[in-house]
## 1
Amino acid sequence: MTFQIGRIFGCGKRVWMDVPPSVQIRGFVGSGLIIFCTTFFFAAAQSVAANVPGGGDTGPAVTLADSGQTLVLANGSLTVTISKPNATVTSLKFKGHEMAQAVYYSMDGSWRYRVPAHCICTVKVATPDMVDVGLKSSGRNERQAFDIEVHYVLRRGATGLYAYAVLTHPADYPATGYGEWRMVWKLSNDLLEKIYVDDGRHWQMPNSYDFQHAQRTPIAEITKLTTGVMAGRYDCKYDYSAEYWNLGCWGHASDVNQIGAWVVLGSHEFFNDGPTKQDLTAASGINHLHFGLDHYNGPGVQVEAGEAWEKFFGPYLLYCNYSAAGGDACWADAQAQAGAEQSAWPYAWLAGSPAYPSAGQRGAISGRFVVNDALKPALNGAGAWVGVAQPPPGGNWQFESKHYQDWVRTDAQGNFMIRHVRPGRYALYAFTDGAVGEFSTNNVVVTAGRTTDLAGVVWNVPHPGGRLAWEIGVPDRTAREFRHGTDYFHGYLWNDFGREFPNPLEYTVGRSRWATDWNYAQAQYRTAGEPAAGPWKWRIHFNLTNVPPGMATLTLAIASAQRAKIDVFVNNEAQVFAQVTPSVQGGNALLREGIHAKYCVESVSLPTGRLKNGDNIITLALNGAGSTDAHVMYDYLSLELP
């Protein structure tokens, strides 16, 4: 049966709904708002239809109602209420549960804080299969002179709400910029008791009572729990930071209510700074999505006067699901849903947006990444990251935020296919675990409807020396292989360094184990009872049997540095041999409970006359580490001999 339900006021549309016999419909129209009451007689299911894009593709028609200040979107599975003036979702109802206190967008913080305001509403699509509504906030008179246009899309059968946003800087707007640009999904209190980010971070969370009775700490974002499942432990939003490119989803779920709420990504192309960049994901009662990845040394966006600029963020899915098996099953379903969304990217249903090219308007890049390393002949291109970006001349993809980036992992033979790339001219980059640095080549042209075949992409890994005297760690742009490399995401971990390690730290090549004897961060050394933290020397002991003449090279691959100057001593701690100031610093990864920020490689050339046959010591000391946040996180260290 198909009924004409009624006119949606303010939209000039009639809504048609295909009604199965098992559905009873009662409705009335008043004050411009259509209210539907539906009773479903479907058999109880283990879970909602899932693992197709949107979470379903059958069911009642999608409806839209406009009451002047609010929009209501519904499809029989979700009912979404949107405040038109500020583009905020004020209600998201699923299976009888209120899933949101709010879903909102914001830019920057403090006195620069901005949310969309005085939005103009447009209905881009209104059919029984899909509704796409846009809410545009002018930036002409804002501190951040960008127009913000937020869209919400509800599709037939979907158990999630798609969202996307477009930032526009017309050429006649003044010079401007932003640092933070995000979406926040604030969940209902105590509805979903478990959090899920990755294999190392999924557990039951404290409830609202526990947080109300928690102790404050000198760092505002960190609280110490005194009650509940995490009593005696710290909680902080940074506990759950992660590399977005390694995740397809994150969120919360409940064993009690048997439902989940997830951010699900169909693509990562609109995120800046490449695949190693991390930011906030889920946290207590919140799902974050930081488009600008502004924490851990994000570059922000700067646009000049006279420059026309536009960037399209999304679509992504605010996904709700159900399983009688509870939270873990909901998480597994959300991960499968991410796969379904990625397989459908770019979405065929999103048409008529020039800033979002269709599949036929995009191109691809293929090739095989070959790694030749004279000192590590077993190294190859398997599992490497290969990607394209558009940094300015002399720029770095780690700090590129104005354009789009596309990255993939190679297969076991080093083959790669980067699909759905927007047409343009790119630089191509590649790096892999086990090798310091990266490969790059310019002028890779992507043409709509074509695959650019690069055939063999060969990286001959450079080395300043002829043999490795020793190595500490594995080059992977993180400090993951060192102590605390798998539990770094706990507050005030740095206060324990003085109880866990001696000062100086003594590391002997060939005898010590970097997983236990080398810390993930060199910072201040704090000792209980001492009035202030002190410096912390790290000594590397090694034995040489044959020192050739010439120059040796100490390589320091650095995963994070903050206010760092590294004094290097060679067999004489009375005299500094060299001081290394990492070329990339910032991001506050230690206090923000990270295992890396931005990557750089530094080297120290030293005459082999400073070395000797037998025992040698190279000492690393953080010069003037007078601030709590000062640190260096080493990714990898090596000594190469001529």
Note: Residues 1-48 have pLDDT under 50 and may be disordered.
## 2
Amino acid sequence: MESITGRRPLLNALPRGLSRADWWGLAIGTAMLASVVAIDVSQGRSDAIVAVFVIAPFVPAALGSVFATVVIGVLTVAAAVVSGSWDMNFGAPGYWIRNVEVVVGAAFALVAAVARDRARVSSRRLAVLDSVGAIADGSLPLAETIERVTEGIVPVAADMCMIDAIHERRVTRAAVRVHGRPNAAEIEERLRRRPPSVPASFVAGERAWMRIAHFRRRVDTEDLRRMAEGPEDLRFLESLNPRSLITAAMTARGRSLGTLTLVTAWSKRRYTTDDVRFAQVLANRIALALDNAGLFSDLESVERRLDAVMSLLDEAVVVHGPSGDLLYGNDAAARWLDFDSAEAMLDSGLEGLFARFRMWTEAGELLDAEKIAARIGAGVLPRRALVRLELIAGQGERWVLLSSEPIRGPDGRLLYAVTTAEDVTELKRSEFAQQLLARTGELLGSSIDYRQTVRAVPQIAVPGFADWCSVNVPSPDGRLEQVAIAHSDPDKLGLVSELRERYPVFVDEPGGIGEIIRSGEPLFLPEISPQTLAAGARDADHLRLLEGVDMGSALAVPMSAGAKTLGVLVFVNDRGSRAFDRDDLAVAVEIGRRAGLAAENARLAEEQATVARVLQRGLRPPELPDMRGFRLATMYRPAGEVNEVGGDFYDAFEIDGGWMAVVGDVTGRGAAAASLTALARYTIRTAGMLTGNPSLAASIVDESLKRLHDLALCSAVILVIPDSDADPADLSLIVAGHPLPLLVHGGSITEVGQTGPLLGAPGKPDWTASSVELEGGDQLVLYTDGVTEACGVSGRFGEERLRDAIASEPDPGSVVAALESALGSFAAGTPEDDAAVLALMRSAEDRKMDASEGAATRTAAASGAG
């Protein structure tokens, strides 16, 4: 799977169909490796050639094939490891050194392959933008412009591409391009005939939503049903098997021209959030190209009626003479640069013109006005350049797309040059807003830590969206606590913090951000005047601090999750920065909504984890009792990433004449199973301590489970351990639908006990007690099926692996450690089922120690009596 942004995860780099680079990489790499191995084998004991094995994976890496590099790299490492069999140097220092060299070399080859692959994809993306830019000057007719644009997009960025024009809420399909299927022409024709499936928000022309692309990472059957015009159309859409979809608005010069839709299907690619941002930029660039295609027709008539036509244009247009002098400027250019009229602009000349503003490149480099004027005078003009323009005398900024066209005479001499300045501020801000919202949306899945999520919000907004941003959350005492803040000027952070500390804000205060908590409505201050500050100041010091913060414009929006307002996000731009507008307010409200959802999700996750920990502490047994003459160890692994409780349990407690131990497993897992776990464990403990009879304890649990409304089942092994010096010790147990315990005796492992019905199963139960003799050093291992049913890459863990893990372990602690290690290395990902183990060993040494301590106690008592 390969996204158009060039990100290609390693696991997704294993395609079902191999590319030409993959085949060549595999063929040449394998041949190279085979040749070097053959030479090494022919040399007998000479091991000098092993290190040369690493050349093989660099062959597919040079071709940019990640898949082939991985395969050849693994084969190379395997060949280096096996080379010790013919070089006769297994275990020798040189053997290990050369193997390490081969592994490191193979890793470098993989890194090189990934870099080469990403560079190739990145170049394809740039090629798409270049292809659009090459025709964006309006030199081609509109129909040919559309044709060239779609040819550049497919198949680099999509398997299917649709361009739809929208005018007065009517959608017209303008172009379709399909690639990669034998019947591509038939699919194109079918897509042209069917009504376009454009989201309603784009058709309605809602400005706030036009900035946000429609993105479906995974297109499912329900999506296709919504788009289908009927059963036959649904079958057609299903036959395409679309996997991922992006629809982005095409806007230029403040108006929407339509939408660009990109779809992946048979290439098996899936789009990412980076692809969404790229698609939005691409859509807007295409909109400029299409709009300029129409504008070029107007420019042809300018040669006949130049003054009349240019005076009607909304774009700023200036004309320079061959020496760089300013010959013409329309009214739009005069308004842009804050001149009273076009005549006043002409009278100011180039020097007066450049004295009005500063310009920066898209990368942030300040452009020198004198050099720009010199280039204009020399006739060296940028065909297209995107710059950021800021008026020196005014406020705010604009993003401008400059396009210059030299007009030459028959002899090639420069007559004059026409430069148009197109305001693409809305485009750039839309692009940034899309990126900002995408980054905010990533918070929803990035962290389950509430505090970390809240602290991340201001970092996203500053400095691109606002000069500073703060998160304010109600505290128990009614204050609005400023829990996170970011400022583009670190020196002002102390001043902002001092302002809040000395003059706290309360939720019940009339007006201000406290009102936002109560009402859930945003606050919009496009301009904060000195009068506004004075009206809101509590005293002279407060006013001084407010003036020092230098606020020029502000937005305050609720950080909400549904109908619940969690806090307030405050965005502030300093005086001298651009003022916020209604579009910014819409973006800020959406940021608040997404941030609120992220914070609420993180808070709920923390609460869930806390509840799970509390349940776990309550459901796990207390410290196990000391059993004279026995050693005991346990293991517990709950299923789930957050849940620490489940359906498996164990317990051990003292009864008359000894101890009782139990291992059980109730149906289900997680919190639902935890309630049954508590019922079963505590019932067995109570009945066992009162009666000491395992069968009676099992019967009481069985009746309790049957009294529940829903079918509740539990398997268990109940073991009675005598407090006796007899050797061997005679233990008794019953098994209720549970895996039979394993007896480890003298290196052999056998199952013990007799299986009886499950606890809670219909019918009248009957359990037969079995006797087990434990000699010194013998171990009895009780376990749940979560051990043997654990999933790994190679299938289930199984009883054979269980037996292998415990066969040679000398004591219960080692048994549990070995099982935990084996399960940890075998299981893939999060366990699917809970697992519990209880290991018990008869210990002659412990009995002797207990006996000697008892004798010493009796001797001391006799001495004291004497």
Note: Residues 447-609 form a domain with the Beta-Lactamase fold (CATH 3.30.450.40).
## 3
Amino acid sequence: MLNRTAPVCAALSAITILCLAARVPAPEYKVIPAAAIEELTPALPPTLPEHPEDWTRAHADDASSGYSPLRGITRENVGKLRPAWTWHSADGPAGIEANPVVAGGVIYTPTSGNNFVALDGATGHEIWRFRPEGTPAVRGLLYWRGDSDHGARLFFSSGNWLYAVDPVSGKAIETFGEAGRVPARSTVAPSVYGNIIVIPCWNVVRAFDVLDGKPLWTFNLAAWSEQAWGANSWGGMALDAARGIAYISTGSPHPNFIGVKHTGDNLYADCVVALDAATGALRWYFQEVRHDVWDWDIPAPPNLVTVTREGRRFDAVAQITKRGNTLVLDRVTGKPLFPVRMRRAPTSDVEGETLAEWQPDIELPEPLVRQVFSRDQITTLSPAAHAYVAKKTADARFGWFLPIAENKPTIWYSSLGGAEWTGASFDPENEWLFINANDFPCWSKLVRTPLPSDASEDKSPGAKTYISYCGSCHGADRNGLTAPSLLYLSGRQNMRNIEKIVKEGRRSMPAVSVPQKEQRALMDFLAKPVVSKTTALQAVWLGRVVDQQGHPGVKPPWGTLNAINLRTGRIEWKVPLGEYEDLAKPGLTITGTENFGATILTATGVIFCAGTPDQKIRAFDSRTGKQLWEYKMPFAGYAQPATYEAGGRQYVVIAATGGGQPATPEGDAYVAFALP
């Protein structure tokens, strides 16, 4: 098995560290130039899908396009959509963030109770149910059609495993790996290139033989350090099968908000990474934020797009980010299609913290959201709301790429997006990208706290259990490694909830099978206060900046739906997305809300999007952003819908289970919509 650790790029990162140690006077801006027209990669002829009625991968296809060629639902008739069926898993309420896949009129998807099911797409009738270890298909799965000698397979991650399941029987395919699974801790959808399945995992990208699960290659995403401080790909990937290139988006280094343990620019965090799908060799990378201490992940899968320049068509990658930027990069070389302006960044007064000298200050494509907080943005929803936020933030720091400081809160846009993990959809005809975005600030600070000893030096039963089951992700000192800090847990969380999360898993954390006799000792250890004579800086997440009623503490809109023209880089239209019921009644229906869903687009120019805490799914006109339809579901839908055809009828289906980042009530439903 090949192990790609990219020593050259690690060396470059080390050089960067040395350069940062002694900054010299420099201009405020420098520019990474756009690729010349002769440097761009000509577009390959478009290929029509063999099964346009299906939706076989999270985000629609290997291009993560979010696009369907179906034409049954149009701008003219979408207003007549009604629920065709609602299915309840009956295995307990919990938020689902997965995009279902559909093939041959059958839906394959996870349930709120950590099962995996097949449903009749026309009726919602359950066909079979499979129980893997962990939480299946957290944010994505794949239906692979097989080849001339082998039947179709479903691939999804669950817990620490990548599973292969027979879509007909619902049984694990025993010839794949060990009893139908191989070790691969992931939350996103894989892709298949020839006989190779590629899957982004925690800190690495892995490839296996698609038939027997034999490991083929591994690419290390934490090139700046021997320690696994994280460059996790929790956003996803796309695959150019014609060229054999896999494109991976990566998150920020850990722990969040302080970078003294991850020095340098931190390749390959906050990057788009292009790998040879056959060998795992690095083709190119492009990094947005360097030495990220703001949790500004690249959270969504790349979109493979084609862009017209001077009458010629070129293949590119479009990547949306939490900063609200859209990176547009040549598919083969990684060179930008628009100039990338870099700005000289602030320094930090935190001991041991060396920030990057330059950070992106991008002009085109136009940013989706505000990127710097200022006091003139404080809410004017009411005099009371303005006064409350102004007083609450009076001592706060803010500014462009201003780092988190000790004891004083720092405000920025935002660890919760801009763009989020749910991604964008692309219209191949007019070359517009459609993105829902958050536009509100959050804040954090650093505080000096007692420094715990290494849990491996603690001889208590709970400490031993912690090291065995938790230490590899949360660190021996409980201060976070590839997962969040668990220090001072009893003061931040209900320990019963923590026990439930350990047993059942949540989002990217898999369920952990701790023996019952060790469970109590583990909970006692996690709840134990830290007592030490030595101290260290610890990041404290203060959450969203809100008014006294819990609404965002800045002027609206707080959530938007956007159309970006990738030919020009300009935003063609922007409309508020979502509404708060208590504000809508007095007539304030243009605020938009926090949103964690995603758009999909049909060939008829209809955009579908949910993700708002008002529990509504909506349809919009892709030309204008005008809302054409809405429906209030039993619970909010914090996932991407899917559209498909069954029995000659077009459907739109979505997990309506609530929960998610907005923490709205949870349920167990899927709702499918169709025309009468």
Note: The two ends are 54 Å apart (CA to CA).
## 4
Amino acid sequence: MEYAGDHTALVAKNRELELRCKALQETVRMQGQFADIANVLASVVELPKLTAALLPTLLAATQAKAIAFCLRDERGVFQVLTSQGIEITPVGRQYIQTLAARASERNDIVTTGRTAGEGLSLAHQEASLPVTYAAIPCIYEGASNSVLIFAATELFTIETLSFITALSPNIGLSVNNASSFDTITKTTEALDGERNRLNAVMYNMADGLLVTDTDGVIIRANRALLEMFRYGKERMAGRMASDVFVPELAGLIATCKKSGKREAISLEIELPGDRIAKALATALTQETTLSNERTGGPAIVATGVVIIIRDITREKEVDRMKTDFLSTVSHELRTPLTSVLGFARIIKKKMHDVILPHVKDSNAKIHKNVQQVNDNIDIIVSEGERLTALINDVLDLAKMEAGKIEWKMEPLSVVDVVEHATATLSSLLEQKGLVLQLDRETGLPLVIGDKNRLMQVVINLVSNAIKFTDAGSITCSVARRGAGVVICVQDTGTGIAPADLPLIFDKFKQVGDTLTNKPKGTGLGLPICREIVLRHGGRIWAESKPGKGSSFFFTLPADIPADTSMHTMNIDAFVSHLKHHVTALPESPEGGKKILVVDDELHIRELLRQELESQAYSVHEAKTGIEAVLQAKTVNPDLIILDVMMPGINGFDVAAVLKNDPATSKIPIIIHSVVDDVERGYRIGVDRYLKKPVDTEELLLNINDLLSRGASHKKVFVVDEDESLVKTLSETLRMRGFHVVGLCDGKECIEKAQAEKPDMIIIDRVFSDRHNIIKTLKFEKNLRNIYFVIIGGQAPGVSV
């Protein structure tokens, strides 16, 4: 019996030992599988490859017959990514995803049993066999990013579940890494695609693209830019843009860097082959940790500059053709207009002076007809003047847009500009019973500008205000704004509708209903104002409310302080002083003066003949330039009225010939032409330049002035090392009828004075002392009668 008991105990112990050995072997096997799985997790990065290697390994390490892998998407919903050993229908997929969601929510294992045939079936198994499922969450940083669903035909052992649970953190980490890698890969691919597209865009751009740092070192230059400057596939990065392309880019880049704003700055540059390009530069900016002292917000600094360069040679040519076309059309229109207006004025004058005094008031019918004729003539004159204004505006705007206007920039007081401009509109104000109020701040800075053009802006804005204001007031104010000046013209007129405000500066655009209330004007006044203001570096805009009036503003930058030390003088007083010393001034010319009229248009010659003969002048005619030169020498006229556009030899060449011939150089010449090239005329030496159609009274006043003082032969030297002052003063004196030579070199002044013997020399005191000019010329025997006007400090002085 003892033996039997011992045998039973021995069998039990052997049984226990076998179980322990089996458990130990299973543990050793699982540890080996754990190492294999860990190796898979460590060696595979891409998620599809990771799941493809992981699932078979897990099946081999457990008693499961099938496995599914569920991944949490960006919405937090678990989706079946892949499976092995199981067939899943849509219903079964929903079951697995629900099971995965429960395990994720609990962050723990969820086991369940399910009868086969309800949407899930194990491969190679009979449909009637029951199936056990275990959902194990793979946790990373406290949350599950994936869930493993195991399926078996028997209950899972604790060892199997423990084994899988131990692996879940590693799986969660690997899944996170694989997902991150996948995201990085997709992002990189997207960035690569975007970069390739961007490179393709930049490479195929028709315009040149240049990117530099703030010092002007090239970061990138596209193919079009290299082709513009006729480079091959050369490496440009690291080189200075101003050295590789054009020096002007250095200033453009420096301006962008200084401004630190994302505003476009443009500049025209030259390209090889006599081509022109427009460079448009913008600063690349970023916020810094520093604070902006003015705004208190983060400071914005420039980190680089991007420049778009476009070849505008063709556009320039088109603009030139457009300007030439408009110029030609304008010229062709001005010539007949001159005749129409001139003869209409003559008829009107004779109606008043000759016909009307002889019309008997008792004959009502005749009186009515005469009055009707008189009114019709007034209409002809009025409409002719309106057509002339339109032609002038069109040509003016075309020249501005083509850059063919020569701007006479000088230091100006904006208050003086406004006062002179508004003074010319007094008659318009009186006609409508309006009063113009001027509000001016004191101590305003000077601006650099073209006085006549800025006056044109003010006159246009104020005349518009008068036109659209029937009652109330008009105010023109000048005030400081930042470093510059703002001018405002405000009225209490009809106002402008909000929809029309953005359109008022468009060419030929007139607001309102032109069918029921056609406004007067060309629609070019405000566009011309905009061009003038933009050329001065300012901006112009309008504010308005219908029925409550409008306000037009424009700004001008102040480039010099109010206490400037530049030469300033009263030009009118100075010219009057010159006239007194250079020539005697009889009150009126002697009768019977001979005037030579040179024009290829018969009607213009006839018009001028009638006007001049009515003033007792003796008129001679020439229809070509050659005839003009011959008659000037044979007739020896007291004055010549000269057209420019003539067959054979043009008026400029005629004037040059006459002014360089001692026999005719002293004859005053008035150019009377449709050609608008005043500068060329005065450079040749003409005494007046009047554009057709000219007012008869203006022409006669100029003729009377020139014949009265005979100043054409009086030569004046303007001498100063300041080229700007010499140019400004010379142009002013030429326009007043003096023959002026501008000089900036002391030695040249002495040599020219000895050779040409001027009547007067206007010279800077310091400049004269430095080169000993006055003392040298005073000892010349034939130069002792020269008048010297000494410019020193703020006013000119005279020495004889």
Note: The chain is about 45% helix and 25% strand.
